[in-house]
Amino acid sequence: VKAEFAKGLPVVLAVHVPFYTPELYNRSSDGGKKFSYLCCPPSEDNDALTLEFIEWLKQQPQLKAIFSGHLHFFWEEEFAPGVMQYTVGAGSFGQAYHIRFVR
User: What is the pLDDT of residues 46-94, one digit of tens each?
Assistant: First the structure.
């Protein structure tokens, strides 16, 4: 990932499991269970390298958006200043985003 960012080009990151944000957790709360449906929540069983990567990622000006799924509902939220994370609904229900990249 760092090699791609080093190229200096805009980056849209595609992941299956969305990254933790407090608002997304509140929207998808499972009654106090672990954050098993979100990637990299704070104060959970993440190793130092993972947490370091998340903080590094939030500082990258080339990061333009994050696309994710896994939760089976639509959610849009800022992951870092100026960087939206888009979570898509269930494909089995025909739910999808139509994304167009323009220069």
Answer: 678 878 888 999 999 999 999 998 877 778 899 999 999 998 877 777 7
Q: How far apart are CA 26 and CA 38, in angstroms?
A: 11
Residues contacting 82, CB < 8 A, separation 6+: none
Q: How confident is the model at residue 28 (pLDDT cuts 50, 70, 90)?
A: low
CA distance 12 to 68: 11
Dihedral of CA atoms 23, 31, 40, 96 in degrees, nearest 10, equals: -60
The C-alpha atoms of residue 103 and residue 101 are separated, in whole angstroms, by 7
Q: Using only C-alpha atoms, what is the Rg of the chain?
A: 14
